[in-house]
Amino acid sequence: MDEDALSRDDVIGKVCLTRDTLAAHPKGFSGWTHLTEVDPDEEVQGEIHLRLEVVPGTLAGRLRCSVLEARDLAPKDRNGASDPFVRVRYNGRTQETSIVKKSCYPRWNETFEFDLDEGAAEALCVEAWDWDLVSRNDFLGRVVVNVQRLWAAQQEEGWFRLQPDQSKSRRGEGSLGSLQLEVRLRDETVLPSGCYQPLVQLLCREVKLGTQGSGQLISLIEETTSTECRQEVATNLLKLFLGQGLAKDFLDLLFQLELGRTSEANTLFRSNSLASKSMESFLKVVGMRYLHGVLGPIIDRVFEEKKYVELDPSKVEVKDVGCSGLHRPQTEAEVLEQSAQTLRIHLGALLSALSRSVRACPAVVRATFRQLFRRVRERFPGAQHENVPFIAVTSFLCLRFLSPAIMAPKLFHLRERHADARTSRTLLLLAKAVQNVGNMDTPASRAKEAWMEPLQPTVRQGVAQLKDFITKLVDIEEKEELDLQRTLSLQAPPVKEGPLFIHRTKGKGHLMSSFKKLHFSLTTEALSFAKTPSSKKSALIKLANIRAAEKVEEKSFGSSHVMQVIYEDEAGQAQTVYLQCKCVNELNQWLSALRKVSISNPGLLGSYHPGVFRGDKWSCCHQKDKSDLGCDKTRSRVTLQEWNDPLDHDLEAQLIYRHLLGVEAALREKHRELSAGAETGSARIGPGEAPEDALAQLLQVLRDLQEAHRSGSACPPPSEPRHPGPLQT
């Protein structure tokens, strides 16, 4: 799009990737794709419900087409809806349905018949159109039915996806420019919980035993995981063990495995190993609210000040300064000194906030850092390695958590928008300074960019502050750690929170006049709200009562960023609350989080109304029955699968299974090697079990899960009610 401040934005072009295109690239589509012109006749969406049958009769018989209803049609009018009708064409004859005003979910229930003569056309064409009084009608999509196939089947009924009109010629490829995209489609069938228990128990047993066991399974997963998917595998494993209360034990095992193969202290945890990636995911999943508390005020101040900051003399821009009429060029030395002073203030504020945040740091993070500190100190004792345990902690805390968040605050939800060029440079220099502090101000780090020298006094002072902070951070009392161990298994999933505008139904479905802005918080217990983030929260919906979370038609409230949460109140009556988000990204994140935490709820709806019940009918399909089941299907399992989504243990187990299935050949080869070289006295992971036995069990578990996916009924009963079905991320 080309943004226009006064008039409507102009369309430059589009890229269209079909589901088939994405399915042909299991690892995702990545590359440059040409923009093509946007033709309204191609911008179609939705489905149409048809019943088609061949009726025996005189001569060749008759073709009967019943046009029942349609859903999710493209909104072509300014009111966010369409005035759809259907045109049925066969063998030179055309018949049309009535027009349904202001609806993207129309119902017709009209039937048309055509003679089936010998030599008649082989295709029946059903087209959906948006009726317009003044301008020409807009094309909404078409379905072409093969009559010969229908003749053999005699009858066919179902939902048909509307297709675009692709008969027009195309402008030369590349004439509108190109977009570089990385797109991935994942469609997973999540089985009942009981199916994954053997896999989960096998992996948990390995983690609980740690290095006292064989260590084979976790190290084999790392060995068979390619670099490009290691982050994803690490996140899946981390979330699985976090849900089992074993995140600290899992990370500790990875620490020990990496320390066992590392001889040089200065290379420790600097590679993209499974330990590094898992710890990175751990901090994002568990420590995000802590990060916001420490970094938020500093990042906000940098964005608000918008000061010009530069320390590299080769990049300095000298500008005019002074009062009106008294401008004088600012010298390079003045620019450098002012920039250094600004960065000293920001760095000092950050380090001070970090020093005060020991108790604010989540207990599980403190316990994990404590274990890391101990393991590294045991592996590298001696005065010459005094700083190594501290650098091990800062390699994660500073280099993989604080610095990335400073450089890209939007990706860590610290800001709503990316920074402009000037602010980005300030953030980059601040991140470099934090990295220097995290590296404990080593000569090597100073030598890389000598122009960072003006910050050295603050960096040196920061090193002392950081070491003092880490010393306090890892100094957890034994009693506190024991209390932590008892609560780890009850870790609450990450919280989704933020400002939303609420619009509730009232009385007999009449809507209140306007939305009201409140601060909402989603936990594993309820969706709550408050007037401000710090004020007392009131529960709005108990999580167990949610029946669906879906989008709302744009025409309903004049906004495309409204969602509805359908739930049961204490009396068992169905209620709906409408929540407006600030943008489409925020809308999708809230829908994803709500669906993830309610996925196991009994009584999830299979259909819903994307409109509102206003007056005496639904705005979407014009049905007058308020208790009507709904005109569109719900999408309860369509989620974003982001790192900040609530935990879904079965999904994580499914994703781990899917990965292991992809490397099954390598696992079998390793099992053959272990079996061939097995000797008396091999390391054992349990009574009578050798390392190859654990791998054999894993391979058998994979076979059982593969069979369960084929049959859908080979699993033991789940411990909790589940609703198996496709999940798209």
Automatic annotation (TrEMBL):
Could you confirm whether the keyword Zinc appears in this record?
Answer: yes
Recorded GO MF terms = GTPase activator activity; phospholipid binding; zinc ion binding
**Zinc: is it a keyword of this entry?**
yes
Q: What would be one Pfam family of this protein?
A: PH
Which InterPro entries would you find in this protein's record? C2_dom, C2_domain_sf, PH-like_dom_sf, PH_domain, Ras_GTPase, RASA4_PH, RasGAP_CS, RasGAP_dom
Stretches assigned to the PH domain: 493-599
UniProt GO cellular component terms: cytosol
Q: Where is the Ras-GAP domain?
A: 229-439
Q: Which superkingdom is the protein from?
A: Eukaryota
Checking Gene3D superfamilies in the record gives:
C2 domain (2.60.40.150), GTPase Activation - p120gap, domain 1 (1.10.506.10), Pleckstrin-homology domain (PH domain)/Phosphotyrosine-binding domain (PTB) (2.30.29.30)
Q: Name one GO biological process term.
A: negative regulation of Ras protein signal transduction
CDD domains with a match to the protein in the record: C2B_RasA1_RasA4, PH_CAPRI, RasGAP_RASA4
List, for all copies, the residue spans of the domain called C2: 44-160
- Chain residue ranges for the region called Disordered: 707-729
What keywords are annotated for this sequence in UniProt? Calcium, GTPase activation, Metal-binding, Repeat, Zinc, Zinc-finger
Report the protein name in the record: Ras GTPase-activating protein 4
User: Origin organism of this chain?
Assistant: Neovison vison (American mink)
